[in-house]
Structure formats: C-alpha cells, structure tokens
Write a structure and sequence with these properties.
Metallo-beta-lactamase, Chain A; 7-stranded mixed β-sheet; 5-stranded mixed β-sheet; 33% helix; globular
Amino acid sequence: MTARENYLEQKKRREDRIKNDPMFKVFMNQEKRWIEPFRIFGNVYYAGDSWVCVHLIDTGDGLLLIDCGNCGNTAMLVKAIYDLGFRPDDVKWIILSHGHVDHVGGAVWFRNMFGTKLYLGEPDAVMFREKPEFSFIQDSTDFLDDVFEPDVCIREGDILTFGNVTIRCYLVPGHTEGCVALFFDGEEDGRKVHFGYYGGFGFNTLTKAHLDEYGDTGHLMWERYAESIEKVADMPVDIFLGNHTENNRFFEKLDTMKQTGSRDCFIDSTEWKTYLLGKKEELKSFVAKQKELG
C-alpha cells in the first residue's frame, strides 16, 4: 500500500466513524468544553470541563484527583492544574469514580509520567480484566488507549488517608458494579463542611440489552442501584461534588459565583439527598419502561 492509499483509507475510516458513531462527538473538539478551573471550598478545586467533572484536592502532602477526564482530554487537565497554581507532577493519587472511558482518560499517562497511584473500585478492576469492552475504551479515538490494572482496589468501607485528607469509601453499584461514593471533610477560615461524591448515575448501562450482554440476565442491577442510593442518601453532605456537570446544578452555581464573587452557592445541605432520591424515582420509571419492552 502506498502512503497515499494508506492516508485515504484512514481518512475514509475516520469519516465513516464520524458519520455513524454517535459517541464520536464527545471525543471531537474537546477544547470547546474548557472551563476556567476554580476553587470550590477550602482545599477542593474544580479542574474538569463542561461535561465530565474532575476535582483536585490539595492534601498538604501532594495532590489528589477524583477522576481524570475523558480520553483525549489530558492536555486540558494539565493546563487546569497549572492554572490553579499547582504542578501536575505533584499529583500523587487519582481515585477513579468508575471504570468508563470518559473518567479514566489521564490515568495511565499520570502514572507513567509521575508515578501517580491509581485507585478503582474492586468490581470495576475485575471488569477491566474480564470484560474490558464494558469500559467502552474502544470508543476512544486513540487506538492505543486501553484498560489497566489499578494500584489499589477500593473495597466497601475503606478509609483512605492522603496527606491531611481522610476519605470514607463505599461501593455503590448501579451505573457500573464498581462505582464508589466518597465522603470527606473540608475547612476554610474556620468553617467546616462535609463533602459528598457519588460515582455515577447514568441509566445507559441499565438497559435490558446492556445488562443481558453483561451477564446480568435477571436484571438485578436495577435493584442494586436503588439499594446503593438508599445506603448513602442520608449521609451528611454540605457540598455535593458532581460526577458530570448535570448532577449538581453546576452551571447555575458557577454563574452565581461569577455574579456575586461568593462561593457559598456550592454549600447546600439538602441537595445531596434530594438529588439521590430523585434518581431513585427516575429509576422506577426507567425500569418500568424497560419491562414493557418484554
């Protein structure tokens, strides 16, 4: 094959995927989703884009990231870290909310470049080994992207300490088997708050077709999702950190912060429980429609 023929073949393959793959759009022109990073409260900062959340925590002994963005988005994350006044090589740990392509993008790069330790819910580590296709890593536009073995598997009830930050971890299966919920405390000018983070709310992995292919032919994940919500809904949470920006009125709060100059808009002790119980009700309707499909 000549260089010209090779180019034209690759060009057609790319154009066909752009035309026929509905997921391709989330990997194109990702710089258009850029958001100026900012401090949320205390030592917790926002470093994600307008779709996928990334949170940076300054632990006093290195940086901790909760998620690391979509595949193909690592350069933007590095810029966000610099713009916050930190250094990417100070990222010592990354906790991954779950094992999907849009949340693990920078993981391997940070580990290879800086020795960053990667944490993932144990069931999703198993999924990476045994059913890697359910990570959707094949959707990445970089064919070199692949699943990986985490350095640490998170189990139910783990208490993890990073510098001056202690995080309580719970497995909340639903969106994936290995989704994690995280709880930790923060302080600013003597004011203390409780942070809460939930590792994935999407119903796209709860269709009958998806669960059947996954091997859950009894569709038990529907009930497990509801049980996960019940397990953590009553946790005291003052600041709800989203997994995606759609979870926690992100843009409404961002606009308020810009208009008022105050970050108090991120503090709402009712939002966590209200949102979680709302998702549980949405799940009932979703499941009912799935059952109608026969």
